[in-house]
């Protein structure tokens, strides 16, 4: 079965457009162009549009497809068909072996290109989010590698080219090796500083070494978290929080924590 719609405008059907959960489609006019292009290549006569339209109706008799009656600029009427990929394959089966192979190869190429567009858009979107995240939150190189590996996994890409190890060091470090870090609570204990991590973070924020950022949780509630600033990167780094990938978790370089504590008066 098919349905017909009268309209006064010329319709240009999409070439294997493939929105989410919708079958890929091509117009009968575009399919005819592919068929005639292949026919010319192999020395066969081209098919007229009205003949091809009758072929589509006959081949797809009993199947559901869309057709539209359109009024051309010269006031004549034409029928435009919207066909799925499988229907295009059925119609093309009436061609000679050489033409049929050429048309089928072109249909396969168009279908593959249509399927690659959503993946490319998704990947580009995720990379843009990571770029923004990196610029705003300044995660350590090791965290950036983890993020890239996750993006690769999400998009079915091979991440073996990524380095297995990243150097996490202070911005003014020159020896090229990673510097060990610890969470604030452990460092306060190691240095015998009788102050809570929350109180120490307030000092770090006042000194410009930390800044308080916010995000919305799944309940649309505002959640606050700390992030090491450009100034603070001399003494620590931002890791991706294990509680939420959209938060940072400050870690401080073991060998520089005494200097940091002195600078904030602790």
Q: In short, what is this structure?
A:
This protein has 266 residues and is of the alpha+beta class.
If you had to describe this structure to a student in words, what would you say it looks like?
It is a single chain. This protein is α+β, with helices and mostly antiparallel strands and 266 residues long. Helix content is 42%, strand content 19%. Mean pLDDT is 79; it is low at 1-23.
Descriptive terms for the model:
alpha+beta, disordered N terminus, 2 domains, 9 strands, four-stranded mixed beta sheet, 8 helices, three-stranded antiparallel beta sheet, 266 residues, 42% helix
Low-confidence stretches: 1-23
The structural class is alpha+beta
Please tell me what the overall shape is.
Answer: elongated
Quick one: how many beta strands? Answer: 9
Topology pattern, helix = H, strand = E: EEHHEEHHHEHHEEEEH
Radius of gyration computed on alpha carbons: 31 Å
Largest sheet features = 4 strands, mixed
Spatial separation of the terminal alpha carbons: 81 Å
Order the strands across the largest sheet as they lie in space: 1-3-4-2
Portion in strands: 15-25%
Mean pLDDT: 79
> How many domains make up the coordinates?
2
Query: Helical proportion?
Result: 40-55%
Number of helices: 8
